Amino acid sequence: MTRYALTLEWDGTPYMGFQRQAHGPSVQQAIEEAAETVVGHAVTLHAAGRTDTGVHALGMRAHFDSDKTLPPFRLSEALNARLRMAGQAVAVLDCVEVSEDWHARFSCINRAYEYRIANRRAPLTLEAGRAWRIARDLDAEAMHRAAQALVGKHDFTTFRSVQCQAASAVKTLDRLDVRREGDHVIIEAAARSFLHHQVRSMVGCLALVGRGEWPVDRVAEALAARDRCKLGLNAPPEGLYFVKASYPGES
Amino acid sequence: MTRYALTLEWDGTPYMGFQRQAHGPSVQQAIEEAAETVVGHAVTLHAAGRTDTGVHALGMRAHFDSDKTLPPFRLSEALNARLRMAGQAVAVLDCVEVSEDWHARFSCINRAYEYRIANRRAPLTLEAGRAWRIARDLDAEAMHRAAQALVGKHDFTTFRSVQCQAASAVKTLDRLDVRREGDHVIIEAAARSFLHHQVRSMVGCLALVGRGEWPVDRVAEALAARDRCKLGLNAPPEGLYFVKASYPGES
After folding, report:
1. pLDDT of A89-106, one tens digit each?
2. In the UniProt entry, which residues are flagged as the active site (chains A, B) (predicted)?
């Protein structure tokens, strides 16, 4: 038995998220079906994180086991050829053999997301489905200041989907940086793990601060309330990118 | 009569280029139809440059005349609303009133293009239709050196489409810079004007240099030959972006 670890990129637009769904296309299904035609048996793909409908990935990590031994480079080329033939918006950026105690989800020690806001009046063309357009001028510095109240170990109940299945709402947020790049506002978030909708919920409230609808302190108050009803806004999925999953021993 | 100057962005994928075509959708038709519903009469849109099928624009300039006087901001909002309703991948980034001697095409003194190469093995997902993927490692420094032979005033017959209608193949190329940005190779070209397919033809030959199939000097030889048959390769349209048109008196 060989365990193959994949680095994946996808355009989230056509998918109902990573996880296999009975009622629509998923990234997991796309890759499992491609892999099955390559290795000749059913496989189960495990990823570092689930993602919502419309959320993109630049560097998701995932693994599956196979009885078949193939050079990892040939496997990634074969997977990409099949994904392409099937018209899937998923690509394998890298493939390596890993030991059987390496697990894409359970071994992961850090997850990094990026959220892209296009801060402009005009509708999006090339970036349609790839950013959240906000017409009103955003104060990115105020957003960054407000974000710092969320960094550290907190009960993130306010910033958690009602469907979230995590046992505890207490998480440690390592980083939440907001910066302006021309007419874009970029938010970077990193933590060992996140609650369901946590990044989008945090971004939604920061956007209210950026638009001047919330004072900077209101984000800290919303956190302290530990009440989902205190959430101002959940940002739409199309601006969110899963950027990187980190593992012990990697630089 | 009022002359309105527009700054336009578009995703070239669904269009047969800027210019109106009998047999398919064009950017010109999209905007003229939107404008006609706003001002209530037929208009003719003039742009700084034509573009081919699949070529994108980040900052094309164009103008049209109207009997109707509208605040430019309201006009751009109305145009964007109509373009969006019509499902067009075109946006008006800016709209200003200009004097009647300002002409988007004839007053333009400089045009800048960017060409994006995604230098990676994996098929493109988020960038599909927005870059030229080249799997083999490109030597961007060699490409930049080769490009410098094209800068200046030359007869660009080799780098000109057989369908080009310009009276002369002599053009002055102000800038042709190649740089690597991670797994992308970016080529920037600027000139008062370009011949049909000139940027794509130059990029095609530079890619041959980057892949090691052409020595650096071969680009200068192809130029000196003044022979379209000496062209190595015409780069595909999806990597090309019209970035900027410049006019006298603008910073």
Report:
1. 999 999 999 999 999 999
2. 52
Q: Looking up tokens 């002369």, which residue turns up? A: B168
Q: Do A120 and B77 touch (CB under 8 A)?
A: no
B142 and B229 assigned to the same domain:
yes
Q: Are the beta carbons of A122 and B10 separated by less than 8 Å? A: no
- How far lies A169's CA from each of A62, A104, A161, A178, A195, in Å? 25, 22, 10, 23, 7
Do residues B151 and B165 touch, judged by C-beta distance below 8 A? no
What local confidence, expressed as pLDDT, does residue B231 receive? 87
| Tokens, residue A50 | 């689930």
Domain holding A201: CATH number?
Answer: 3.30.70.660
Tally of CB atoms within 10 A around B172? 12
- Which residues of chain A are at the B interface, by a Cβ-Cβ cutoff of 8 Å? 9-11, 56, 58, 76-77, 80, 83-84, 89-93, 120-126, 128, 130
Share of chain B above pLDDT 70, in %: 100
d(C-alpha A42, C-alpha A63), whole Å: 14
Question: B49-87: buried (b, 16+ CB within 10 Å) or exposed (e) per residue?
Answer: bebbbbbbbbbbbbbbebeeebebeebbbbbbebbbeee
Burial bucket for residue A23 (CB in 10 Å: 0-12, 13-18, 19+): exposed
Q: What share of chain B is helix, strand, coil (3-state, %, to 5)?
A: 25, 30, 45
CA B187, CA A75: separation in Å to the nearest integer?
33
**In this structure, how many other beta carbons lie within 10 angstroms of the beta carbon of residue B26?**
21
Minimal C-alpha gap between B146 and chain A (Å): 30
Range of the domain at A197: 114-240
For residue A51, the number of C-alpha atoms closer than 13 Å in the C-beta half-sphere is 39
ipTM for this model? 0.93
